[in-house]
Specification:
The protein is mainly alpha-helical. The chain is built from 25 helices and three strands.
């Protein structure tokens, strides 16, 4: 189950510690083109919250570019809802966060400057309750609200930020060519850089302390953090040198676990939350990240027959998704119908039902499901994205363009929507609009030069209206200003 249908994205320990610095190289460079200056020059100054946000935002774009974000809108919505349920109970004035699922089977999670938090799907599958998953998010949220990255910058004033940025860019842009990343590491004293920017033990203790308070205030089990740490520590001896990245970046000691338990004892206990959505997402991840569709189907069949599962409905949901992947539509339809009888408005079930009819090319049935679902859940990202994909598959390009444009008026952060819009505009013969949408897609995926080229091509379209010309020119200016700001951060 540890495979993935998406391009692989694995980073070294040093990369995870310094990945935020990759944002400081806004240009499209190949790893071989990057020059790595010597370490030692002074240049890292304190960064403002705005600079932290711009840096973190650019890092996420680069992670997307490397194929590192697991692009599933239902999972994206879940991890953000969970994160914001914790933030709602934080005493911090910082309330803008962005959570994303990383396409990596390794057990890890990390915080980036500016409120960006990545969680490997491998970590979610390693948890056995939503409280355990929430404990990791709460810990990472605390790193950000306490501005531990800003403190790390201050401690590392004598380190050369361009050198570290080049290192991470080399690793990320090297993609699957791991020799490129290793060569970059070999040219630098990576461990000395890591030591300068690692979160200190005091930072980790502070993040644990605040995170456990967030857990309790949000209605989760305050002992979940200690329990999850203890579980990882007990299993660590089985990993040997290949211990999970989370254990390397978040060292777990007996004292740390004891401190977490002592802190939890001071917190009120709550009745266990309904974890159905969490359990459904676990099953969905198992299907989405599987290399072998047949083995995954056999996995769910075996568990159901042996009654080995955390939740029957969640196991049946995973079974239904796996049946769809294996084109066993009639059986999948029966399983989903049973699930919908008990919870007719459950988003995961309705989305699976629409996906089934789309895969079976029953486009009219699929469209009815999407329309009814969007009436229940207006502006819902999972329904909107999958509806647009279905309409494109059914050659209903004008309708697809309309629902995508309507949604993008309120949420302009999801690159896949721009990719779908570019396809719809292209099919309709709208060259300038297709170029503009493609430019937004490239920009959100960390390819600013390609983005600018697309927008400049859009300006060359014959017959372009004054309004559209002004709109595209304004967007070009915005992108160039963002790149200039990143260059200013680089010079610090």
């Amino acid at each position: 189950m540890a495979g993935s249908i998406f391009p692989s994205f694995t980073t070294s320990l040093c990369a995870l510690q310094l990945i935020f610095l990759s944002a400081l190289l806004p240009f499209d460079l190949s790893a071989q083109q990057i020059k790595l200056p010597e370490i030692g020059g002074s240049g890292a100054a304190s960064v403002t919250p705005t600079e932290e946000y711009k840096t973190g935002q650019a890092v996420v774009r680069n992670i997307r570019r490397a194929g590192g974000v697991l692009d599933d809108p239902l999972i994206h919505e879940y991890i953000n809802n969970l994160g914001y349920s914790l933030i709602a109970n934080s005493d911090s004035t910082m309330k803008n966060f962005y959570f994303f699922m990383v396409n990596d089977s390794q057990i890890n999670a990390f915080a980036l400057p500016g409120g960006f938090i990545g969680v490997n799907y491998g970590l979610l599958l390693a948890t056995e309750s939503e409280s355990e998953l929430a404990s990791v998010l709460a810990h990472e949220i605390a790193h950000i609200t306490q501005r531990h990255y800003a403190r790390a910058f201050e401690r590392g004033k004598k380190s050369n930020i361009p050198a570290m940025a080049a290192l991470i860019a080399a690793i990320i842009l090297g993609g699957r060519n791991y020799q490129v990343g290793e060569a970059a590491l070999a040219t630098m004293t990576a461990r000395s850089i890591q030591n300068k920017l690692d979160f200190t033990r005091a930072n980790e203790k502070e993040a644990d302390y605040i995170g456990i308070g967030l857990l309790s205030a949000s209605g989760y089990d305050p002992f979940a953090m200690a329990n999850f740490f203890e579980k990882l520590a007990k299993n660590s001896r089985l990993y040997g040198e290949s211990a999970p990245e989370f254990l390397r970046t978040h060292p777990v000691t007996k004292n740390r676990i004891a401190d977490a338990r002592n802190r939890a004892r001071t917190m009120p206990r709550h009745p266990q939350k309904n974890e159905k959505t969490y359990l459904l997402i676990r099953s969905r991840l198992r299907v989405l990240t599987s290399h072998d569709k047949r083995k995954t189907l056999a996995y769910f069949r075996k568990n159901l027959a042996a009654k080995e599962y955390l939740d029957l409905d969640a196991e049946n949901y995973g079974y239904a998704l796996s049946l769809i992947e294996n084109k066993k539509f009639e059986r999948a339809r029966k399983v989903l119908n049973r699930l919908l009888q008990t919870e007719p408005h459950r988003i995961a079930y309705l989305l699976a039902q629409a996906s089934l009819e789309t895969h079976a090319q029953n486009y009219k049935k699929a469209e009815d499901i999407f329309k009814n679902s969007l009436a229940l859940y207006p502006d819902n990202l999972p329904f909107t994205q999958n509806y647009a994909q279905m309409l494109l598959q059914a050659h209903h390009y004008k309708h697809a363009r309309q629902i995508l444009r309507d949604y993008l008026r309120t949420d302009r952060t999801e690159p896949t929507l721009y990719k779908l819009l570019a396809e719809a505009e292209n099919k309709l013969g709208h060259r300038a609009d297709a170029n503009a949408a493609r430019g937004e897609y490239y920009y959100l995926n960390g390819q600013p030069h390609k983005a600018l080229n697309q927008l400049q091509d859009a300006l060359k379209t014959k017959g372009l209206s004054f309004y559209n010309s002004a709109r595209i020119e304004s967007r070009i200016q915005q992108m160039r200003q963002n790149l200039a700001l990143l260059n200013e951060i680089l010079k610090k």
